[in-house]
Amino acid sequence: MSAYRIILVGTDGSDSSFRAVDRAAQLAAATGATLLLASAYSPMPERERASASDRLGDLAYKVQGSTPADDALRAARERAVAAGATDIEQEAVEGDAVDVLSKLAKERPVDLMVIGNRGLNSLAGRILGSVPANLSHRAPCDVLIVHTTPRGR
Q: Counting C-beta atoms within 10 Å of the first and last residue's C-beta, which end of the chain has fewer, N or C?
């Protein structure tokens, strides 16, 4: 088995996703792999954008477009560096998390995708499918599902 060269991990800025980032960064540090941090985002509808601009004024940019994803990626990068990763790339991509991560894994020679288990045990996750479950079926590479939530939840 060859060593992992590119490890992809998605983050939405949540504590759960940051635990997956921590694990992916530890693996990247241990194997010398490139760590690819990714965050999917949805465009804000025009009505919400106008409302945010009215309420937030000059600070509206903080909730529009890719800014929340960029913020999540900056925080994830800090955690990855703290965990020992040295070769880190970032991608904020518009779209659904499953689509974005599977597309990145196909476009880049990703060897391992690291995702959190959040959603696997929920009723909605069992009925509608969860990000981890869907990615485990669609990924063109190895998938590591990290326990990022307390067991039994």
A: N
